[in-house]
Design a protein that fits this description.
The complex is a heterodimer of chains A (283) and B (276).
Chain A lengths: L1 H13 L1 H32 L15 H4 L8 H15 L5 H8 L1 H6 L4 H34 L10 H4 L8 H6 L1 H26 L6 H21 L11 H4 L11 H21 L7
Chain B lengths: L2 H14 L2 H21 L9 H8 L18 H13 L2 H8 L1 H9 L2 H33 L12 H4 L15 H24 L2 H17 L25 H25 L10
Helix pairs in contact in B: 1-7, 2-3, 2-4, 2-7, 4-10, 5-6, 7-9, 7-11, 9-10, 9-11
């Protein structure tokens, strides 16, 4: 199992699509940073000369405001969160479908157990998906923290931060912002990893790589469509990763229990589908 | 092999084996009609065919940044267009690595294969719209609506259009509706050409990006703007002109046919690997 895992992790992290996913994420993060840095400079020149005479809140120029997870002003931020389900699945979730079609799975099956092969593959898919999405998120925090001061956000300027009382761990944002950043990074890491595992496990049902990655993405769009049009007023929380992975909220706020339920459900689906294929005759 | 024979093969393989995508699109069109019916529950028989057709491609009004009103992408509009885009995504690439590869090698002619694929993509998009139109007509008929392309006065407020920039009533939607299949075909052609160079999944990602930026920015250079009723000149004084959209779409289709032909001529068919 250990050797198999090492092989699969090597394949996952060296795959071209992992680099593509990472590259797209980092590109969007850098664009967001450049646009937000201009905004930060406007604040510095527009507010700071008057701080001694007028009551103005300097914390609106804080790196925590311009972090991609809390930012809500740049189109690249919205695009990044919109692409997360695709970026998580891109690095390695397709590998089982490809190897089954090419006959590689049969070769492996004669040398190792199907269980350890599938488990290694799932772990590699989950880890590569999680890293491809989380690394740009961390890069965003590092970039903004390098150029914008880490001022403690003031709850009085909530309209600039978008982290309202109803948001998950909002009090943490205004008291321990670094812990808040860690919490959200972990949430994004967990979702991306589990979602990559779900897409991987769906390859037990289809060998079509395009369908494998596009159909689950359309599923989330379908959920968003239902929540916007059919469940309006019934479910008052964010149901899709396009919304619940972001710190800020307006129309509906993310709910920690809903996120936990979605992650648990996804994990159960992934494990059950993989288990169903464990005893399948691949020869 | 002639273009027609390639195309007949595409119809057999592309349409017949992937019929469920068209069924899914029909369900989506029906769902969108249902949403409008639920919104206008008390005036169901007053709804027209035009109302239902417009409601399937609402999109969103022009977005202006406001910290109290963050951007919400139009999920219904995106889902429907991505369903259509997905419908045309896989088959041409799969064929290029399977039957198409053999046919191109034996016939020694890549140009005809490529033209047939372009025809198939355009035909596929038009078939999606034909199915959608039939579903909407049936829906309107079943609910006793008027079979006219006229649009009810209350529709813009019901679909959250920009009520401050509405042109004078009555609104003509024929140009907008006629443009829909053409602009979608242009979008799918862009996707097809990108999928030849990169992988289909990357080209799908590009389609998502184009649609996303179309929703974010109101500009005639982003194709998605022509596909939103909320931004059509029929419902917005400074909205997208259907004639301009038609010219833009035709130019894009022509460009993509030429670009794709050049790429197909130079592509190393054996380096492309397995069937997806």
């Amino acid at each position: 199992m250990k050797a198999m895992l090492r092989i699969e992790l090597g394949k996952a992290f060296r795959s071209r699509l992992f680099l593509v996913a990472l590259g797209i994420g980092c590109f969007l993060v850098v664009i967001t940073f450049v646009l937000d840095y201009q905004l930060s400079q406007q604040i510095v020149s527009g507010i700071f000369p008057y701080l001694d005479h007028k009551f103005l809140d300097p914390s609106v120029d804080s790196c925590f405001r311009f972090w991609i997870v809390t930012d809500f002003s740049q189109p690249s931020t919205y695009l990044f969160f919109m692409l997360i389900p695709l970026l998580a699945a891109l690095p390695y979730s397709w590998s089982y479908a490809l190897e089954s079609a090419s006959g590689y799975t049969r070769q492996v099956r004669t040398r190792s157990s199907q269980g350890s092969y599938l488990a290694s593959k799932m772990i590699a898919a989950a880890l590569s998906g999680a890293v491809a999405v989380t690394a740009p998120v961390v890069l965003s925090l590092v970039l903004t923290a390098c150029f914008v001061s880490a001022r403690l956000p003031d709850a009085g300027s909530v309209v600039y931060f978008g982290v309202y009382e109803q948001c998950i761990a909002s009090s943490l944002f205004y008291t321990q912002p670094w812990a808040y950043c860690l919490l959200y990074t972990l949430i994004i890491f967990a979702f991306s990893g589990i979602w990559a595992a779900v897409v991987f496990s769906l390859s037990m049902l289809t060998k079509n790589r395009v369908a494998l990655m596009v159909a689950p993405y359309l599923f989330w769009l379908g959920v968003k469509f239902l929540s916007d049009n059919v469940l309006v007023g019934i479910v008052r929380t964010e149901l899709t990763p396009f919304g619940f992975l972001r710190a800020s909220g307006y129309q509906y706020f993310p709910n920690a229990w809903v996120i936990l339920a979605i992650l648990t459900l996804c994990a159960i689906v992934a494990v059950l589908l993989a288990l169903s294929a464990r005893k399948r005759d691949v020869l | 092999m002639t273009v027609m024979r390639f195309f007949i093969n595409d119809v057999r393989d592309g349409f017949a084996k992937e019929w469920w995508k068209y069924l899914l699109a029909a369900v989506m069109f029906a769902l969108l009609c249902l949403v409008l019916s639920v919104k206008s529950a008390s005036e169901l028989d007053a709804r027209t065919l035009g109302d239902y057709l417009v409601s399937t491609f609402v999109g969103m009004k022009e977005y202006a940044f406001d910290p109290n009103d963050p951007f919400q992408f139009p999920a219904a509009w995106m889902l429907l267009l991505l369903l259509i885009a997905y419908g045309t995504l896989n088959y041409p690439y799969r064929d290029m690595l399977g039957f198409g590869r053999q046919a191109m090698l034996y016939s020694g002619d890549r140009w005809r294969w490529w033209v047939a694929k372009c025809l198939w993509v355009v035909a596929s998009v038009f078939l999606f719209y034909l199915i959608g139109f039939v579903v909407v007509v049936l829906w309107t008929a079943c609910l006793g609506g008027n079979m006219t392309l006229g649009v009810s006065r209350d529709l813009p407020s019901l679909l959250l259009f920009n009520s401050h920039a509405l042109p004078p009533y009555p609104w003509s939607v024929a140009g907008f509706l006629a443009l829909l299949p053409l602009a979608t075909a242009a979008l799918c052609m862009i996707q097809l050409v990108i999928s030849l160079v990169l992988k289909p999944i990357i080209s799908f990602l590009c389609t998502v990006v184009i649609l996303f930026f179309s929703a974010f920015y109101l500009t005639p250079w982003l194709l998605g703007n022509y596909l939103m009723a909320a931004r059509s000149s029929a419902f917005l004084t400074h909205g997208m002109n259907p004639e301009l959209g038609a010219v833009f779409s035709l130019v894009l289709v022509a460009d993509m046919v030429v670009a794709g032909a050049i790429i197909v001529n130079r592509i190393d068919l054996f380096a492309k690997g397995h069937i997806e």
